[in-house]
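User: Assemble these into one structure.

Assistant: Restating your components, then the assembled model:
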Amino acid sequence: MADGRLARGERTRTAVLDAAVSMASVDGLEAMSLARLAHATEVSKSGLFAHWPDKEALQLAVIARAVHIWTAHVVTPAFAEPRGVRRLWALHERRIEFYASGVLSGGCFFVATQAEFDDRPGPVRDALAAAINDWLFLIKAVAAQAVELGELRPDADVEQVAFEIEAHGHAVVTFSRLLHAEGAAAYGRTAVLERLRSLSPVPGLLPAS
Amino acid sequence: MADGRLARGERTRTAVLDAAVSMASVDGLEAMSLARLAHATEVSKSGLFAHWPDKEALQLAVIARAVHIWTAHVVTPAFAEPRGVRRLWALHERRIEFYASGVLSGGCFFVATQAEFDDRPGPVRDALAAAINDWLFLIKAVAAQAVELGELRPDADVEQVAFEIEAHGHAVVTFSRLLHAEGAAAYGRTAVLERLRSLSPVPGLLPAS
DNA sequence: AAAATTACCGACCGATCGGTCTTTTTGTGT
DNA sequence: ACACAAAAAGACCGATCGGTCGGTAATTTT
């Protein structure tokens, strides 16, 4: 039941989306032109319209693909760690490693697109906001688990902790990209690590430095 | 010795730059088109080229104007506070108030433009990086003063502190804009306040909540 | 009053934007 | 060999992009 035509279409579709996520991590999702995307993927521009009706639909597909990549590189590996503060820390650590890995030539898809669409209402903005919200919800849920397990102090404000983790993760990208502060990753790591250690009755679960 | 022609030119020039800073805080510095800027300021598009040779020169002028606005609304008021941890805190607080004030319709010029140019080499990127570097240098200098005055622990890492303050200030904008988390300002305030209190031998200098 | 300077405008240019239409290639069933 | 469908290509469209050009109105200098 393998239709080679459909398979071919699926292949180019994901190839285009992967290239688009990388390209959007550099230029942004709106500044990425269809002509350049088509050229980079060795597909004709009209070939893109064979897969998505317009640019907006493609942008939404790109966001979904970016979420998939993020999940595969950050969330899934972090969930190999046991529940609690170790998993919470792993989320942050994996994120920073993902940035350093160079999988996306622009560093981070979401950092690049967030500022671009925060004042531009529409489905694309909504999808981006939903993706970020899901990520924050995940952090909060893992942090809440850590509280339940007694690995974070019971009076820890998980909303506050999620804000700070996200802020430092975001800052690692902006610092290391615009300025060429190669120490950004270390600062981002230290900030969250010290914070979690100060909130945890069992700091031995976290790495030393 | 007042040349009315030069005065007129200076008036429209600053009017255009003010509008451009606001517009760029929404759309970004490259996505801002000259036709729209000209229309918004009731100047003809060719009128813009009478003042700046090309878009890049205008972008550089816009950055200088944004620095000026930032200095007037954030730095100068904060320097009314006495040297040390109070001034350091005031820098963060004034920044958050500036965001909430709605002076710039897009929230923050630098947040909007940073991600846009971090992978786009050239004079505009260099100017943006220089502006951010100056801001970080200022934070570090004020923090170092606080250490000297004994208002921050002598082993406090001013580079690390500057990273965290900038990260939380930045996050206030991104959180309150894309998501409509109205609590963002409170999280950003709490994060830095608690951090400074924990680093200060004289936490009484800082506000209570 | 003439000349020079400054600010600014409307018309226009080539290039590129997102998007449409028609046609060709590629693979699947009979 | 055939019809059929999915994928992709190519030519093309109106709108908009940054930028140029010739010219005009206002003001200052001579």
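The domain at 4-202 of chain B is CATH 1.10.357.10 (Tetracycline Repressor; domain 2).
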